[in-house]
Amino acid sequence: MSLLEIEGVSKSFGPVNVLHGVDLTVDRGEVVGLVGDNGAGKSTLMKLVTGMYTADAGAISLDGTPILGLPPGERRRMGIEMIYQDLALARQQDVAANIFLGREPTRSILGMRFVDRAAMKRDAQAMIDRLGARLPAINRPVGSFSGGQQQSVAIARALTFEPKIVIMDEPTAALAVREVQGVLDLIRQLKADGIGVILISHRLNDVLSVTDRIVVLNHGRAAANLTTTNTDMAEVVSAIVGGGDMAEAAAHEARG
Ligand SMILES: Nc1ncnc2c1ncn2[C@@H]1O[C@H](COP(=O)(O)OP(=O)(O)OP(=O)(O)O)[C@@H](O)[C@H]1O
Ligand SMILES: [Mg+2]
């Protein structure tokens, strides 16, 4: 039994069929790359895993427990964390507030519950330190941070609650070279800790360097399931463009 099992999942938005019977599995300590052209359905598939969207058909289980009937908060408590493409940070709030957004630790005073700001700050700083992230100041609104710094906050938020699986949607798209290496190192660390990782990225060199397996989505279908050590850029690109001509493949690679 895999950590995460997606079987025959389909999804339409109105008349538009976005996913057609997609299968995907992730084991403990396995890093799976999820790649495909713009609009292939990658983010949609992952939002079915988190519960942000409702699947039309199919089954998804975590550790053998079916999760499609469960609300997003329950799936999160079970250990599913996703770092969204658009980050979804509260730009006006500081680092600690973002890390604990909606899950603030509380303490009881005279029988009433209060948000424990001191605990939040302490735990937020500890996670930022553990990630080795460089932030200008932990108490500044995150909207004033660079793209890479905001990404670090989003990753810190995902890891604070000890997830079993972390889904990263384009975590390196906005980052400078050094920051990209930091995120890739972090993925390797998650793998070593036995956490399953799904990495969505158009940066195929990153995907080839950090994953164990690569699943290619092509127009909402799983077009390839490749073992990273047995594949190469040309094979991945060809599965992404799905038999398109070489000019298109080259153009895609140049974009990626
Ligand atoms: N909430 C929505 N309502 C309607 N259509 C949607 C919605 N979300 C996604 N889609 C459509 O589903 C298709 C797949 O979108 P999705 O965001 O999953 O693609 P993607 O593979 O993540 O692409 P990208 O690499 O550009 O992020 C697209 O045609 C998109 O327009
Ligand atoms: Mg997407």
Care to describe what's here?
The chain has helices spanning 42-50, 72-78, 95-99, 117-131, 147-159, 177-192, 204-210, 233-241, 246-255, and strands at 4-13, 16-26, 31-35, 57-62, 65-66, 80-83, 106-109, 112-115, 165-169, 196-200, 213-218, 221-227. The protein is of the alpha/beta class and 256 residues long. It folds into 2 domains: 1-79 and 164-256, Rossmann fold (3-Layer(aba) Sandwich), CATH 3.40.50.300; 88-162, no CATH class. It has a 6-stranded mixed β-sheet, with helices on both faces. Strands 2-1-4-5 form a 4-stranded antiparallel β-sheet, with helices on one face. A two-stranded antiparallel ribbon has the order 7-8. A hairpin with a 2-residue loop joins strand 7 and strand 8 (112-115). Helix 4 packs across helix 5 (147-159) and helix 8 (233-241) packs across helix 9. The radius of gyration is 19 Å and the shape is globular. Bound molecules: adenosine-5'-triphosphate (ATP) and magnesium ion. Magnesium ion (MG) binds at residues 42-43, 85, 169. Adenosine-5'-triphosphate (ATP) is lined by residues 13, 18, 36, 38-44, 85.
